[in-house]
Amino acid sequence: MILSLLGFSYLAFGLLALAMFSHYRDTFGKAPSPTQAKVLYIAGWLAVAGTYWGCIANLGAAYGSILFFGLLSFAGLLVILMLSYRAKFLPYSMALSTVFSSILVGFN
């Protein structure tokens, strides 16, 4: 459960990072259109909300909120490291985390 939520929070931070001009340019080599940036931004916040809902649904409001902020901190660190050292691989790692997280949710 925790690993699947970590994967979805990694996806959320990756989407929010790609909504920014400089991170998108570093990753894809071109600037995002305003529509692309807006879609990435909205999808990122929806993924953050979904991660929070998953934490609360599994552990309740108190412990779920604590887990949520811990997962966001760790996922944010992972996205920062990926953007710092291997920005071109960020979309692939986001896709991989989504696939593995979906598989883990299926086993629970």
From TrEMBL:
Keywords: Membrane, Transmembrane, Transmembrane helix. It comes from the Bacteria. The chain crosses the membrane at residues 37-55, 62-83, 89-107. It holds the Pfam family DUF3325. This is Iron uptake protein. It comes from Shewanella pealeana (strain ATCC 700345 / ANG-SQ1).
